Amino acid sequence: MARSYLTPTALPANPASTLHVATKQYADALDPVNLVGADDVFAYYYSNAAQTVANNTDAWISFGGSQDTNALITQTTASPGHKFTLGTTGIWAVTVSARWVSGGGTGERYLGLWSDVSGSEDVIQAWGGVGASGSPTIMTVSLVGKFTSGNYVTGRVYQASGGNLDLENGWSHILISLVRKLT
Question: Which residue(s) pair with 90 in the sheet?
Answer without folding.
Answer: 147, 181
